[in-house]
Specification:
178 residues; single chain; eight-stranded mixed beta sheet; alpha+beta; 2 helices
């Protein structure tokens, strides 16, 4: 009978040990996934809840990109010139972001840095153009006192500034998915 009790306790302690190992492995995987993802949280506005879409049926984004409303966004953590930023985006099968409206990047509520966007002054046409050649409309963006020899930076505070295109700044790439 004493041998049976020792064997039972060994079996129970073995099962508890195995359960602890499984729980620790699960916790490790969950923590790895949590810290691996960008620290960008969705926000919601009255009547318009915004949700990040990662690998949804609408879009599947590359690693380190953020899916939102059927587009993928890459928010850089390194600084480049406007031309280098554009080159990087093209190498990733994307382009510097062309803002469709002022609220497009509201999901980035925690980032207050200025970022290059795909808007530059075209001397030949004498106007501001997006990378795809389309002109900027005043209902898309409004900025004043912009130097036409510079490129445009955007901050999440919904403000635009201009800086020489040769300065280095963060940037945002966008892949459109339909």
């Amino acid at each position: 009978m004493a041998a049976f009790q020792i064997t039972s306790w060994r079996l129970i302690s073995g099962m508890l040990g195995l359960t602890c190992l499984v729980l620790m492995a699960t916790l490790g995987i969950m923590l790895k996934n949590k810290f691996y993802k960008q620290s960008i949280q969705p926000i919601s506005s009255p009547g318009h809840p915004l949700e990040l879409q990662e690998g949804s049926g609408c879009c599947s984004c590359p690693e380190k990109w953020i899916g939102y409303q059927c587009s993928c966004y890459f928010i850089s953590n390194e600084q480049k010139t406007w031309a280098e930023s554009k080159e990087f985006c093209v190498s990733q099968n994307s382009s510097l972001i062309q803002l469709q409206n002022k609220d497009e990047l509201r999901f980035m509520n925690s980032n207050k840095n200025f970022h290059w966007i795909g808007l530059s002054y075209n001397k030949e046409h004498g106007t501001w153009l997006w990378e795809d050649g389309s002109s900027v409309s005043q209902d898309q963006l409004s900025f004043t006192e912009i130097n036409t020899k510079n490129c445009i930076l955007y901050s999440l505070l919904q403000s635009f500034i201009d800086e020489p295109c040769t300065n280095t700044n963060y940037y945002i790439c966008k892949q459109q998915h339909f």
